[in-house]
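Recall that a protein's primary structure is simply its ordered list of amino acids. Everything else, from secondary elements to tertiary packing, is in principle encoded there. The following example makes that idea concrete.
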Amino acid sequence: MAGVDFQKVFKTSSFILYMKNKVFVSGCFDLLHSGHVRFFEEASQFGELYVAIGSDKTVRELKERETINTEAERLYIVNAIKFVKKAFISSGSGMLDFEPELRKIVPSIFVVNEDGDKIEKRRLCEELGIKYYVLKRTPKDGLPMRSTTLLRKQNLIKKEI
């Protein structure tokens, strides 16, 4: 979220209330890279971060390919990241595979990156009264820009896996 001075937020008495926010993100997170970790880091600045991971079945349906890492591996890896409060495998299917968990957790904020900004997600958040934020990709200082889309465009990973 551009324009937020997190140093100032951390020094205010509202910081405790601020950190009680439940923040929700979703994705495949199959080829985990520094861009994903940076996304988790930035999203976690809004509150406690809950990560919905697409199931192997959903990845096959949406991306028309097998996963590199199984859903059990992806769950283990994402839960090990210090910015994540809790990760889980989404129980639904399709683009809104996370909807059952979203309704159960009832976050106050849903965060996506520019690639993940979809009208269906915006509408669902509006229906549920959840704030919706789109983050720009910003690499951690000293690290290159990373996204799975960019890696595919650069032919650093195969388009079909």
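The longest strand covers residues 22-27. The chain is about 40% helix and 15% strand.
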